[in-house]
Write a structure and sequence with these properties.
By secondary structure, this protein is an alpha/beta fold. 63% of the residues lie in helices and 13% in strands. Helix 1 links the parallel strand 1 and strand 2. The longest helix is centred in the last third of the chain and has 29 residues. The relative contact order is 0.16.
């Protein structure tokens, strides 16, 4: 599951409970946060933690960063953690940000 956003309107507790259920089902969430909203940052980080996914912030002016993050998630979805590690070794960049968070999961 991939979420790209700049804020969170739902209650953090409700979202956290749902994220916990996704985590139990083995569904990792990758949350890409545009901006500096502290409530969204906290909630997105907790969702990533509960689902064994990853959280990364990016700047609204950096379409390249988001493109790299989404490409890395596609590699992970197709080939798992080992494929993501291979991508991170070959290309570095944003894949490294993700691999450090999903490593060992």
């Amino acid at each position: 599951m991939v979420i790209v956003g700049d804020s969170l309107e739902e209650g953090v507790d409700k979202i956290g409970a749902l994220a916990g259920e996704l985590g139990l089902l083995g569904v990792p969430a990758f949350l890409f946060h545009e901006g500096n909203n502290p409530v969204a940052a906290f909630a997105f980080q907790q969702i990533a933690k509960l689902t064994r996914g990853a959280y990364c912030r990016f700047d609204a002016a950096s379409a390249k960063t988001l493109k790299e993050l989404l490409a890395a998630v596609a590699v992970y979805a197709a080939g798992g953690r080992l494929a993501l590690e291979d991508l991170a070794k070959r290309q570095g960049g944003e894949a490294l940000r993700l691999v450090h968070q999903v490593k060992g999961r």
